[in-house]
Structures are given as structure tokens and as C-alpha cells.
């Protein structure tokens, strides 16, 4: 089997073509790698530009923040100064209110002291009057008791000496005279006590009237005693009746004295009630003065507090207005800086997006070119392999045909030789 030189030439040509394609692919890959490196080197520039723009935006934002902080500090300082002024005004108002309250307290204390002194004087006068009335009543009661004791002793003597009419009449006359004198003394003492009570207090008119009634009763008792003495002198049988009348008159006198003492007690109670009413009136006047002073102090405090609140509100409103203006300016500056930073970042973002899009397009184009080259290379390889296979098949088919024809010839020759050998010899006739 021999090799056709044409097939060898074709095989060498295909190998050369394959080497050329490989070289082209390597050169293309190197070019793509170089372009990619250049794009990668260009990207940091854009990133550095974006970083520089971001740093500038941050610096602007920091400057705006510093401006806002300075404005806020100024507003705080103004508010602190206003608060100090308001505190000073409040302190001055409090001092004025304290001075007014101290003056009012001094006035109230002086009024209370004067009222207490007047009350003490009134109480002392009432006590003196009450003591005088009590002394007078005690004297009148003692006189009435003495007269009653004398009347009882006289009645006993008259009853014991009933046998001796003349002696009893004389003793009864003497006892009646003593009783009359004692009754007159008691009446005089009661009258003196009534006059002293009337001079001590004009309000004791009822007690004086009661004492006068008691005096009238005593006078009536004396008149009755005189009538009884006359009746005892006229008849001895009326001695016992006179003694009974004298005892009844003495009891009436004691009752009258008791009534006078009760009236005196009523007067004393009335004086005490009047004194208590006076003290209550003085206390009420003092309380009213204290209430009026407290009301004046409260009104002054309220006025001072209202003035302080008004000043504080005005100061707070001024500070709030200044703070609002500063905050508005700071917000405007911050918004301007934020807008500028946003615009710069948006521009950088758009630029970076455009660059990335271009890079992606370039990469896609390079990938497409690589794919096309690979397809072309594969097509060339497949075509060359098909051509080689065809040529090899043709060469093989030619060699097989030549071999088969040679074998057939050899077989034919061998068959002819065998036939020639096996055939009988022909005789020539």
C-alpha cells in the first residue's frame, strides 16, 4: 500500500492552516486582555473622581452642619441670657412681694397687739365690775341671812315666852324693832348694791329693777312686821300669828335676796357674754385685717407672678423666633448642600453607569467576536477533517481496487495455470 503525495500535501496544508488559526486566536485573546486591562485602569479614575466628589459633598455637608451648630449655639446663648434676665426679674418681684408681705405682717401684728390690749383692758374692767357686783351680792346675802337668823331667834323666843304676855310682847316689840332695823339695813345695802351695779354697768338695768323689787318686798315685809307688832301689842293671842308672819316675812326676804343674787348672776353672765362678744368682735376684726392683708399680699404676688410670666413668655417667644429663624436658615443651607451633593452623586452615578454599560457592550462584542472566531475555526477544522477523510477514503478505495484487481489477475492466472496443467495433452493429427 503506497501513500499518495497529494494527500500528504493536503495534510500539511491543513496543519499550517490550523497553526495560523491558533496564532490568530492567541493574538485576539491578547488584544482582548489588553483592552480589559485598559478599561480596568480607567475605572479607578472614575472611582477616584466619584470619591473626590463625594468627599467634596461631605465637606459641604460638614460645613453646613457647623453653620447649623453655630446658629444653634447662638440661639442657646440668647435663650440662656433671656432666661437669666427673666430669673433676675422674678427675683426682684419676689423681693418686692416679700417686703410687702413683711409690711402687711407687721401691720397685722400691731393691730392684733392693740386689739389684745383693748381686750385685756375690757376684760379687766369687766372683772372689776363682776367683783364689785359679787361683793355687793355677798353683803346683801349675808345681811339677809343675819336678818333671817334674827327673825328665827325672835320667833323662838316669842314661842318660848308665850306665858308671859307682857314680857313676850316687849320681847316681840324689841325683836320686831330689831327686825325692822335689820330689814331697813338690808334694804339700804340692797339699794347701795343696786346703785353700784347701775353705776358699774348700764346694761344691768334689769338687775337694778329686780333689786328695787326686792327692796319693795322687804319694805312690805317691814310694814307687815309693824302691823304684826301693833297686833301683838293689841292682843296676846296674835303673838303666835305675828311670829308666823315674821317667819314668813323672813322667808320672803330670803327668797327676795336669792332672787336678787340670781339676777346678779344673770347680770354677770350677761357681762361675760358681752365681754365674749366684744372679744369675738375684736378677733373677727383682727382676722378680717389679717385676711385683707393676706389678700393684698396674694394680689401683689399674683401681679408679680403675672409680670414675670409675661416677661418669660416674651423672652421665650423671642428665643423661639430666633431659634426658628436659625433652624430655617440651617435647614435651607443643609437642603442646598444636600441637593448639590445629590446632584453631584447622581451625575457621578450616571457617568459610572454609562461607563459600565459601554464596558459591558465592549465585553459582549468581544465575546461575540470570540464566539464567531471559534465557530469559524470549528467550521474550518470540520471542513479540513472532512476533506482529509474524503481524500483518505478515496486513497483507500483506490488502493483496495488496485489490490483487488491484482488479486483477481493473480487468481485468474493461477486458474489458467491449473487448467493448463490439468488439461490432457492434445495430439496433432
What does this structure look like?
The protein contains four helices and no strands. Helix 1 (5-160) runs antiparallel to helix 2 (165-200). The two termini are 51 Å apart. It has helices at residues 5-160, 165-200, 205-234, 238-422. It is mainly alpha-helical. The protein has a domain at 113-299. Helices cover 95% and strands 0% of the residues. The radius of gyration is 78 Å and the shape is rod-shaped. Residues 394-429 are annotated as: Disordered. Residues 408-418 have a biased composition (Low complexity). Residues 419-429 have a biased composition (Polar residues).
SSE blueprint and pairings:
Elements: H1 5-160, H2 165-200, H3 205-234, H4 238-422
